[in-house]
Every structure is written in C-alpha cells, then in structure tokens.
From TrEMBL, chain A:
UniProt region (Disordered), positions on chain: 39-73
Protein name: Uncharacterized protein
Highest taxon of the lineage: Bacteria
Lineage: Bacteria, Pseudomonadati, Pseudomonadota, Alphaproteobacteria, Hyphomicrobiales
Automatic annotation (TrEMBL), chain B:
Protein name: Formate dehydrogenase
Stated family: Belongs to the formate dehydrogenase gamma subunit family.
UniProt key word Transmembrane helix: yes
Classification lineage: Bacteria, Pseudomonadati, Pseudomonadota, Alphaproteobacteria, Hyphomicrobiales
Domain called Cytochrome b561 bacterial/Ni-hydrogenase: residue spans: 131-298
Alphabetical GO biological process terms: anaerobic respiration; formate oxidation; respiratory electron transport chain
UniProt xrefs under InterPro entries: Cyt_b561_bac/Ni-Hgenase, Di-haem_cyt_TM, FDH_cytochrome_b556_subunit, Formate_DH_gsu
Keyword Metal-binding: yes
GO CC annotations on file: formate dehydrogenase complex; plasma membrane
Species name: Methylobacterium oxalidis
Length: 73, 345
C-alpha cells in the first residue's frame, strides 16, 4: 500500500512537472499565427466573440413546419 | 382624334422595336447555332482545364498560397487524410470493441469453465517470501496507474462521442474530454519512465530459456493441474514483460511524434502514427486485462506479490519452484524473513 501511494503521488508530480516543461515550448494560436495584417482570435475568446453559444440559426435552418413570425412590409 | 394618333404612334414604336430586336437577335442566333463548317479539332476548355486527378499526378497534395506564418496551412487537399478519417471513424471503433470486449468474453469463459486457481496448501503455508521489493512495486504501480488513466482517456478518443456524450451531454463531455486530454498528454511521461524502470529492473529475469519451452509445453499449469518448473518469471510472465516493453516503446514513440506535431514527420506521417498508436493501444488494453485477471481474480495468492511484496511460500514453491530454491540457497537460511518479521499464520 505504501509503494502504491508513493507511486501515485510520484505519477501526479511527474505529470505536473511535465505540464510546466511542455508549456515552455508552446504558444497560443493567436500568438503563433497572428501577423500585422491578420488577427487570429483573442486570448480567452474566439473569432465570433465571447457571447457565441453555437445556437445561431440562419434562415435555412428552420425546421420544416415550424411557423415563423410574419415579416412586416 | 387624339386617341387615333396615339394608336398610330404606338404601332410605329412597336414596329421599330420589333425591327431592332430582330436585327439584334439574328447574329445572336447565328452564334448559338451549331456551326456547320466548324473544325472538329477545336480546343475544349472544360476538358483541358486543371482537375484534381491531373494535380495529384504532379504532387501528392494540393496546396495554395497563404500570407500567415504557418505555411502548413496552405495545404488544401491531402488524399491520405480521407483514408485516415475513414479508418479512424469507421474501422477503429469496431476493431477496438472487438479486441476489448472479445478479451472480456474470453476471460469470463475461462473463469466460468476453469474457475479460480486456488492456493495449494502444504507444510510451508503461512510462511512468507519476499517476491518484489519496494522499488519494484513502486515502478509497477506507477506504470499501472498511469496506464489505466491513459487507457480510459485513450478510449474516450474512440468511443467517447459515441457512448459517453449521449449519456452526460455535450457540455459535460467537452469538459471531461479536455481534462482527459491533459491527463493523457501529461501522465504519458511517468508512464514512459515506469516502462524504462521496469525494463531495466526485470530484464535479467526475463531472458527466454529452455525452461520456458517446457513450461509452455506443459500448458503453464493453468490448463492442467500439474505445475511445470519456473524461475522468478515463468514463460507467461515473460511474454507479458516483452509485450509491455515492446508495446510501451511503440506507444511512446508514436505518442511523442504526435505530442510534438511536425517535429519528426508531416501530416501524413502523423496520421499513420495515430493509426498505429490506436491499434497497439487497444491490443495493449486487451492484453493488460488478461494480466489484471490472472494477477487478481484468476489466481489466489498472486496479488500479494504486488500488494505487500511477500507471497506465501507454498504458493511460490508451486508456481516458481526454481526461483525459491535459488533464493533459499542464496540466503542459506530458509525464507527471506528478517529478524523482526514473524511468519504469517
């Protein structure tokens, strides 16, 4: 049991150490791929903004038979 | 009178428009009508335009021009990617399910037909012999715990969206998969370290020899009731050792290639590595399931070797008689009990 506990603690410790070492060789996509003429996202958000939920519906996404509000002309 | 004049003007205007339209339509019709004397060797722009097949005869991929620093993003079409996707999304789930569920079914059949291999009691029952020291147990459990996390997080890549996401929902699945990916990437390092430790520590006891051939011929004592001679590790355990060393090395190499994208190979090479990684992974999991079974449920007394490190001397005499003789001759004082250790009753 003692060997098992030490093994688990060491595995987690080595994993955390690996995460820190590997992070030094990594860059965010917005850092790696942005240029003076192309902006690639912001840290913590994405290209469609922080409020994007993924539930955007276009005019062609309406379910068949679903009634929509009549347009005012 | 005024109305009559208006009608005349209208007719005149209509006649002029019709004349203009007819004069304009004439050449147009002449152009669209098939030429009766056109040469049959006229170039066909559509047939001679650049198409996908022609481009693939010139280069294995189709690319474009981009202005961002990552020139790899210029790659538009890489046909091998379709094959890789087809394999990963179609074949791999079936291969993985067949390997793992097949092993579970085999072990269940073995358990219900052969039953648990019981401890054979003798006058030496109750006395203990040290089978694995602290460092050996440490390296085994470090590798084993990492393997279980790696296996579960690896299976999530194949089966997660099919089996888990419908149960827990997309949001929980996304969070779980993100942490599973972290665990997979970072716990791979203690796993690789453990593989190296185990290889170094147990290599000398896992060199195949004639005793292993006799052990295999005798069915290893599992199929029948007679236990063949064995040293510290029998032929079955040696197979597990070399399987873990080989599969561990292969998983490490293919995993490192994917962990450092484009450092060693291109996108096609990484897709090949992913295929090998996943195929060996499911075979590895299936084999370790058998190892877990025989080390716990399948054989009474076997777990103690990795649990406490000490096994029953009667068990050791039956399963590893040559090793017990060697150990007793080495210590020249019977079982490896130190002065403060009392024999288990």
């Amino acid at each position: 049991m003692k060997a098992f506990a030490v093994a688990v603690i060491c595995a987690v410790a080595i994993g955390i150490a690996a995460s820190y070492v590997l992070s030094t060789s990594q860059r965010y996509a917005w850092q790696a791929f942005s240029t003076s003429s192309a902006r690639v996202s912001h840290p913590g958000t994405n290209l469609v903004g922080p409020r994007w939920t993924g539930d955007v519906k276009g005019p062609h996404d309406e379910v068949a038979g679903e009634t929509t509000a009549p347009k005012r002309s | 009178m005024r109305r009559g004049r208006t009608l005349i003007r209208t007719f005149v205007a209509a006649a002029m428009l019709a004349g203009v339209a007819g004069a304009g339509a004439g050449p147009a019709l002449a152009q669209t009508a098939p030429p009766t004397t056109a040469p049959t060797t006229a170039p066909n722009p559509t047939a001679e335009s650049v198409n996908e097949d022609l481009l693939f005869k010139q280069a294995p991929t189709i690319g474009g021009r981009i202005s961002i620093p990552d020139q790899k993003a210029a790659n538009l079409i890489q046909p091998q990617g379709r094959e890789w996707r087809g394999f990963h999304e179609t074949w791999m789930p079936w291969i993985g399910a067949a390997a793992i569920l097949g092993m579970v079914v085999l072990l269940a059949l073995f358990y219900f037909t052969r039953g648990r291999i019981r401890l054979e009691h003798s006058e030496e029952s109750g006395r203990k012999i040290l089978r694995f020291n602290g460092f050996e147990r440490f390296t085994h459990w470090m590798t084993a715990t990492c393997f279980i996390i790696l296996a579960l997080s690896g299976l999530n890549y194949i089966f997660g969206k099919r089996l888990l996401m419908p149960v827990i929902g997309p949001d929980a699945f996304a969070t779980l998969s993100q942490w599973a990916k972290y665990a997979h990437v970072y716990l791979a390092w203690p796993f690789m370290l453990g593989i190296i430790f185990m290889f170094v520590v147990w290599l000398k006891d896992n060199i195949p020899n004639r005793i292993d051939v006799a052990w295999i011929k005798a069915g290893g004592g599992i199929i029948g009731d007679k236990h063949p001679h064995a040293e510290r590790f029998n032929a079955g355990q040696k197979v597990v050792f070399w399987m873990v060393a080989g599969f561990g090395a292969a998983m490490s190499v293919t995993g490192l290639v994917m962990l450092f994208p484009f450092a060693a190979t291109d996108i096609n090479g990484m897709q090949v590595m992913q295929g090998i990684h996943s195929l060996i992974g499911v075979a590895f999991i299936a084999a370790i399931l058998a190892h877990i079974y025989i080390g716990s449920l399948g054989m009474e007394g076997a777990y103690d070797a990795m649990g406490s490190g000490k096994v029953d001397l009667a068990w050791a005499r039956v399963h590893h008689d040559l090793w017990v003789e060697k150990e007793q001759a080495r210590t020249a004082s019977g079982p490896q009990l130190r002065a403060h250790q009392a024999p288990a009753e």
